[in-house]
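To close the chapter, one final illustration. This time we ask the reader to focus less on the individual chains and more on the assembly as a whole: which components sit near each other, and how the overall shape emerges from the parts.
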Amino acid sequence: MREELVEEELFAPGHRACAGCGATLAVRLALKALGKNVIVANATGCVEVISTPYPETAWRVPWIHAAFENAAAVASGVEAALKSLGRRGVKVVAIAGDGGTADIGLQALSGAVERGHDFIYICYDNEAYMNTGIQRSSATPFGAWTTTTPVGRVKRGKDRPKKDVPAIIAAHGAPYVATASVAYPIDLIKKLRKAAATEGPTYIHIHCPCPPGWRFDSDKMIEVARLAVLSGAWILYEIKNGRLNVTIKPPKRRPVSDYLKMQGRFKHLTDAEIAEIQRTVDERCRHLGVG
Amino acid sequence: MVARVMSGNEVVAYGVKLSRAEIVPSYPITPQTTIVEQIAEFIANGEMRAELMRVESEYAAMGACIGASLMGARTFTATSSQGLAFMHELTHWAAGSRLPIVMAVVNRAMAPPWNIWADQQDVLSQRDTGWLSLFCETNQEVLDTCIQAFRISEDREVLLPVMFSLDGFMLSHTSEPVELPKQGDVDGFLPESRRPPLLDVDHPTTLFNVPVPEQYMEFRHWIEKSMDAARRVIPKADREFKRRFGRGYRGMLEPYWLEGAEVALLTAGSVCGTVRDVVESLRKRGEKVGMIKLRSFRPFPSEELRRACEGLRVLGVADRACSFGMGGIIFSDVSAALQPLNVRVLGFIAGLGGRDITHRDIWRMFKRCIRAIEVTPARAIEWFV
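The assembled structure is written out below.
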């Protein structure tokens, strides 16, 4: 696997991301997996802003930014034109954060998947609007502090569960849907390659810890990402033609508190609240067969 | 040349087919819908080779237009009213991206109250997006403007998107005889689009990144310079069209019976036909009146307008829209353009939400204007409610 990866960085260093940024690592790995025959349509967000200060760019593949809610729609136009003009061998890739995917871009994503365009949609999920300064999105997990779900005397962080976008896209009948984590790069790369080899709409949802947004030290990014998987708070699976397969099964699940306690955004949680989150995680793990 | 009796929307579809559009993303909205239905028929019958993208919203329609046009494909869409308003963020984006997208706007009122009839509030509210905006008076002009729009838009001096307007129902669903040019002749006027793709894996570029304030303004200034170029390109395309097909529309505006006129009425769209009638009857009675038909709203033909108005004392402007708190949208632009001249400008707001603008209404507008030669009117703007 390692030998097959291109050494060349298609997402170049020198960009403006924070130290320990999970999202940019996800993009870097994704481009290594996909190679240079891709056209990227990027939604507004952290990755867009930190990678393209004019006239510089971190992108060594053709790249376009066309508004926030629009990555899937633009990608679908690019794909339709490639087909119509008879150009083959190029894969269109839409990239958006969790806000651009689960909230403002969900309709465009749903439309493009339903129409069956041949493209890969990558969601880098850092679980809040990080570019605008840590506001809650529908992908923010239950209990998390954000600047719009502050912890006060009567409110205690986000009071709703995380929206399950991979399940929504799987329900469209997309031929390949997978979750991934920056802590499991081989798993991530394999999944992107499977998506690239699949004809039709594919969806990869990557869990990307954000040190400033989740409130932990930047050298702990991979550790936080790994604990999410080891605790079952984030489950790595793929759904191929409707069949679900968990790709990384932790031998013995760690308590979810190990994951939560590393992050300042959960520091207000009481033991009872953590127990409640543990119950939800257990239930979901049972449901997906993680054990 | 074949003449056929066709509705305005059918005519648009024929215009798009003759222009060999390759990608057509669209979303249904009354009164636009029959345009894309007709295009779907053409494609289904093998008469047109294009990809009709049945997207999930007008927003996505413009998003897909941007993606397809970036790849060099000739791209068309059509919408009305709420649909156009829904696209608004991306109409800015399409122009800022310098993409030659062509869009038919079948003019319809904005809600609330809900109303599907003719009104130009929708298209005039797109004024500041950087699109060229053209108006049509007849179904024949709709066809000819559609074909011209692609040529103007793709001109290297312009490279801006073009929207052209036809009044909902009054043109879109009204049948008129229209001469259809031969495909070969249109191909001569509008050669196949050969724009290279802007996104190319062999030559990767980064498009629409983040310039700082010291860099941003130049991009906007280039749009304005291209609008200036369009002031030359629009009449040139129209002249060339006339040379090949025998029909022309006087470029950006048409002066009608201004010889010796003291008073004229300026307006845009299908109502021009009614104004022509009234001008004719008033002339027969010896009144010195004429009409100015505005064909290009953006770029606004300030210079041409000043030339046309040189002998006038009063110019009335009939708007089928309103900038609330100011008056007619076209009226404001006309007033600004005529500022160096000693011409009194009166504004009339009429025909909103599909209300008829009758001969009698036009007659009254002319009477107000004629009276204003001698007596300063109490109000410069009048609502014909």
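DSSP finds twelve helices and 16 strands in chain B. Residues 213-245 of chain B form the longest helix (33 residues). With these observations in hand, you are ready for the problems at the end of the chapter.
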